[in-house]
């Protein structure tokens, strides 16, 4: 009978800990980048909605010769007030401040988007696009 030493199979605790450490480091690097991309995507949707509202305001002006009210004296009402316009979770409140010949559209972040580095996005009747903080927002 030949009884030799049987070679052990499996992983050692050290090998498993190294794999766990590698996964943790990868997750620590990837998660913030992923969250940043999610914020940028939501911001992009809000910007598109602001541009759509800009078109609405320009059409309103073409029909009424003013931004603040229609020919009957009714105040302008935006077709939607939250972004995104579809889906259950809303990440921006959309508002307009008008005068007879000017308007300013604003997208204010809320909920999960409230920590966005660009904060509030605005578009004026002149087409000027601004943000309250951050950089590379438009």
Brief descriptors of the model:
single chain, alpha+beta, 1 helix, 138 residues
- Radius of gyration of CA atoms, rounded to a whole number: 27 Å
> Mean pLDDT score, rounded?
92
How many E strands? 5
Gross morphology = rod-shaped
For the largest beta-sheet, the strand count, sense and barrel status come to: 5 strands, antiparallel
Tally of discrete structural domains = 1
Order of helices and strands: HEEEEE
Sequence stretches where pLDDT stays below 50 over 5 or more residues = none
Structural class category: alpha+beta
The termini sit apart by 80 Å
**Number of DSSP helices?**
1
Overall description:
A hairpin with a 4-residue loop joins strand 2 (92-98) and strand 3 (103-109). The chain has one domain (13-131). It is rod-shaped. The chain is built from one helix and five strands, in the order αβββββ. It starts with 12 loop residues before the first helix and ends in a 7-residue tail after the last strand. A five-stranded antiparallel β-sheet has the order 1-2-3-4-5, with helices on one face. It has 138 residues and is of the alpha+beta class.
Topology summary:
Elements: H1 13-64, E1 82-83, E2 92-98, E3 103-109, E4 121-124, E5 129-131
Antiparallel strand pairs: 1-2, 2-3, 3-4, 4-5
Could you give a short description of this structure?
The chain is α+β, with helices and mostly antiparallel strands and about 140 residues long.
